[in-house]
Amino acid sequence: MRKIITPLIGICIIISLCGCTAFLIGAGTAGGVATVGIDTLRLSRYTSFENAWSAVIDSFNDSNIKVTSQDKKNGLISSFQEQSIIQAQIRKKGDEPVRIDIKVRKKGLPDLKSAEQIINKINNKLAKKIINE
């Protein structure tokens, strides 16, 4: 039994020390949020594209993130400021939930903590919109 347990514990320690994003954000993210890359979080919600778009814009403004480019047709919102790149992509296909991807890089490196803060603000704004409807 010890021959099985010891390697499993070792593997768990190695994974957690390597910075696996699933371990880094863990329970800190809200429901419906998933990691889709080393620098990208995805929120899936049943709402309209318009609600998602305005929630992202409002969340950027609330976080003092200056929007530097918008392409509503393709669902892209970007900010380039102080060595940070913040990008949001909003997608809606048919009856599927709206997908909001938030990608944050600071000085060229992934910044999942900032992405998590932004996506949680968006999620809260969308929840309030649903309650108020």
Structure description:
- It is a single chain.
- The chain is α+β, with helices and mostly antiparallel strands and 133 residues long.
- It has a single domain, classed as Alpha-D-Glucose-1,6-Bisphosphate, Chain A, domain 4 (2-Layer Sandwich), CATH 3.30.530.50.
- The protein contains 4 helices and 7 strands, in the order H-H-E-E-H-E-E-E-E-E-H.
- Helix 3 crosses helix 4.
- The chain is globular.
What is the topology?
Elements: H1 2-17, H2 21-25, E1 33-37, E2 40-45, H3 49-62, E3 69-71, E4 76-81, E5 84-91, E6 98-106, E7 109-110, H4 112-132
Antiparallel strand pairs: 1-2, 2-6, 3-4, 4-5, 5-6, 6-7
Give a short synopsis of this structure.
By secondary structure, the chain is α+β, with helices and mostly antiparallel strands. The chain has a single domain (26-132), classed as Alpha-D-Glucose-1,6-Bisphosphate, Chain A, domain 4, CATH 3.30.530.
Number of spatially distinct domains: 1
Architecture (CATH level 2) name: 2-Layer Sandwich
Rg of Cα set: 17 Å
Number of helices: 4
CATH class: Alpha Beta
How much is the average pLDDT?
82
Which stretches are poorly predicted, pLDDT < 50 over at least 5 residues?
A: 17-30
Oligomer: single chain
Helicity range = 40-55%
- Beta percentage is 25-35%
| Overall geometric form | globular
Judged by helices, strands and strand pairing, the structural class is alpha+beta
DSSP E strands, number: 7
What is the helix/strand order?
A: HHEEHEEEEEH
Report how far apart the termini are.
Answer: 56 Å
Question: Main β-sheet: number of strands, strand sense, barrel status?
Answer: 7 strands, antiparallel
CATH fold name, please? Answer: Alpha-D-Glucose-1,6-Bisphosphate, Chain A, domain 4
